[in-house]
Design a protein that fits this description.
Chain A is of the alpha+beta class. Chain A has 3 helices and 4 strands. In chain A, strand 2 and strand 3 form a beta hairpin. The radius of gyration of chain A is 12 Å and the shape is globular. Chain B has 3 domains: 104 residues, Glucose Oxidase, domain 1 (3-Layer(bba) Sandwich); 101 residues, Orthogonal Bundle (Enzyme I, Chain A, domain 2); 287 residues, Phosphoenolpyruvate-binding domains (TIM Barrel, Alpha-Beta Barrel). In chain B, the strands form 2 sheets. In chain B, strands 9, 10, 11, 12, 13, 14, 15, 16 and 17 form a 9-stranded mixed beta sheet that branches. Chain B is globular. Classes of the chains: A alpha+beta (92), B alpha/beta (535).
Chain lengths: 92, 535
């Protein structure tokens, strides 16, 4: 199956920090597809369902979050995740 | 039953009766290493129990605290957290060493971040690490201290204090510790009876304990009559607190009608929620030790923090102390490592004047916040009049810079914290806009007795005639110069010290927000004329 790709700009104040990471991983876990994120278009890629790994990425405000997914609900998953990022994780 | 009584040091007033719950320290804990499979299973069980504990804790918390613990739970539920620890175990390392190594690497990653938000999360990871370690060493089998228990430990971390529900009573007994420690301040703020400095005897405590925080006494196995008396005493104190709270918004007038200003000390945003601003006459001391790492150079972040204080005070005066690092508050890369006696070394203004770039960032942020109300800048650890002049030259330079820009600013009042005995006795020589006496350090320097040394703590008495003479001298110098004199040390919130402080001529006290109602009540019970006659 072909990878689905998307990206979104981190515009919330704190970046992909504690609470945003938890929200992102909780949302990602609702989908069956494998989902990965990166802060460069060519990776390295990180499992979007692992808060420990997401926090290691230390994605700050102003960085672009690249996403790729693979699975039957991959498109839906990336739409939901990009939407969460654009909504500033409902934090501000 | 044999009754026993152990004397320690009074750290927080009040009486509590309850069962002893011993919290053993992680340091020095050890366990026997088992087979590979056993070590693997032991770590898995410890992580599972820590996870269960955190999940349970979330149910009892609200708001920010619940969300922060939610982050810890998310990490504990993630297998990626334990991956490298299990790899260490497979290579023959014991479970606790494997877990420590894995968490050290994770924490180092956070601490290396450029972003302050990420660096601050390192403390959550340290919390997770210690929680799992307690389970590994079998130190946490009893779970968290039940409400109403007497927590017995060698020493207690502020985070451990905050994880206990104190609304149902309970008390604290520590083998080490000091009445001026952070956790003692928290205990006084919350009205939790606390006795410290018990010595090695703390390890022998068990069964029913009675803690008299005012007298510094711990009774083991008190009889029914004693318990009843203590409960009545505790109830009286609760009633006195409630009465004091009911009158907290009214000004503090002595019986002969003298108005005493009662201000608050603020260490962080939580302190501003403890009390309505209308109950106080302003902020007498806002600490800025939250400034670490990148924030030292971040004018905007500092401005936001100061602006928040100004908005809360809503027109009342706000005294903000410039960075008071050094002593027991090191900042990597800023303070000096390896000083043989840091309390007598480079700290406070001494460091600020050696880092003029960082000092000016703070002065700029303060001058900008000064447009929002009545802002007073206080310099800590000033020893010589020359230091005040040098600092003022930096302020003038910053004001001139701002004047050339389009940024709004105002000139703040510029005063000193009096905590060095030589400065106290020469107060008349300082061209300061105000004096605020830091009685904690002034007392330890004047009595040559360390604040944290349990053995010498009795010497560090603010009521020593020599210390009181210095306070009276500063009060006189302030009157002669026509500037305000206040006290911002712990003595200002201590009902036993307040009569002596007012008698020495002080008319403004700045206290921890939790103490303000009782401080006002204590002032209302005093007659300054009668105090003067006692002399």
């Amino acid at each position: 199956m072909q990878d689905v790709k998307a990206h979104a700009l981190l515009i919330n104040e704190v970046g992909l920090h504690a609470r945003p990471s938890v929200k992102l991983t909780q949302l990602a876990k609702r989908f069956a597809a494998t989902i990965e994120i990166a802060i460069a278009a060519d990776g390295p890629w990180t499992d979007a369902k692992s808060p420990v790994k997401i926090m290691r990425v230390k994605a700050a405000k102003g960085e672009t979050l690249y996403m790729r997914a693979n699975g039957t609900d991959a498109e839906e998953a990336l739409r939901a995740l990009a939407d969460l990022v654009n909504r500033k994780f409902d934090e501000e | 039953m044999v009754e026993r009584c152990i004397r320690g040091r009074a750290a927080s007033e009040g009486v509590a009766v309850g069962p002893a719950v011993i919290l053993r320290a992680l340091e020095g804990a050890s366990r026997a290493k088992g087979s590979l499979a056993e070590e693997h299973a032991t770590l898995a069980a410890a992580v599972a129990r820590a996870r269960g504990e955190v999940a349970e804790l979330i149910g009892t918390l609200e708001g920010d605290a619940a969300e922060l613990i939610g982050f810890q739970l998310a990490l504990l539920e993630d297998d990626a957290l334990t991956e490298s620890a299990y790899a260490h175990i497979e290579s023959g390392v014991a479970a606790e060493a494997a877990w420590r190594a894995a968490m050290a690497a994770e924490i180092a990653g956070y601490e290396a971040a450029d972003d302050e938000y990420f660096r601050a999360r390192a403390s959550d990871l340290a919390d997770i690490r210690d929680r799992v370690l307690r389970h590994l060493f079998g130190l946490a089998d009893d779970g968290p201290a039940p409400a109403g228990a007497i927590v017995v430990a060698r020493d207690l971390a502020p985070s451990a204090f905050l994880s206990v529900d104190w609304t149902k009573g309970g008390g604290i007994v520590l083998g080490d510790g000091s009445p001026t420690s952070h956790v003692a301040m928290l205990a006084r703020g919350r009205g939790v009876p606390m006795v410290v400095g018990l010595g090695p005897a703390w390890e022998t405590l068990s069964g029913l304990l009675l803690v008299d925080g005012g007298a510094g006494l711990v009774e083991i196995g008190p009889d029914a009559e004693r318990v009843a008396r203590a409960r009545a005493q505790a109830a009286t104190l609760v009633q006195r607190r409630a009465d004091a709270m009911a009158h907290q918004l009214e000004p503090a007038l002595t019986r002969d009608g003298t108005r005493i200003s009662v201000l608050v000390n603020i260490s962080g945003p939580a302190d501003m929620t403890a009390l309505p601003a209308a109950a106080c006459d302003g902020i007498g001391l806002a600490r800025t030790e939250f400034l670490t790492g990148n924030l030292l150079g971040d004018e905007e972040a500092q401005y936001q923090a100061y602006a928040e204080l100004m908005r809360w005070a809503d027109g009342r005066p706000v005294t903000i102390r410039t960075l008071d690092a050094g002593g027991d508050k090191p900042i990597p890369g800023y303070t000096v490592d390896g000083e043989s006696n840091p309390f007598l070394g480079l700290r406070g203004i001494r460091l600020s004047l050696r880092h003029p770039g960082i000092f000016r960032v703070q002065l700029r942020a303060l001058a900008r916040a000064a447009v929002l109300g009545s802002l007073k800048v206080m310099l800590p650890m000033v020893t010589n009049a020359r230091e005040l002049e040098e600092a003022r030259a930096h302020l003038r330079a910053v004001l001139a810079e701002l004047d050339d820009s389009s940024i709004a600013f105002a000139e703040p009042a510029f005063g000193i914290m009096v905590e060095v005995p030589a400065a106290a006795l020469a107060a008349q020589d300082f061209a300061a806009d105000f004096f605020s006496i830091g009685t904690n350090d002034l007392t330890q320097y004047a009595t040559a007795a360390s604040r944290d040394g349990a053995e010498v703590a009795d010497y560090a008495d603010v009521l020593h005639p020599g210390v009181l003479a210095m306070i009276a001298h500063v009060a006189r110098a302030g009157r002669a110069r026509g500037v305000d004199v206040s006290i911002c040390g712990d003595a200002a919130g201590d009902a036993r010290a307040i009569p002596a402080l007012l008698k020495a001529g002080v008319r403004a006290l700045s206290v921890s927000p939790g103490l303000l109602p009782m401080v006002k009540a204590a002032i209302r019970g005093l007659d300054l004329a009668a105090l003067a006659e006692d002399a």
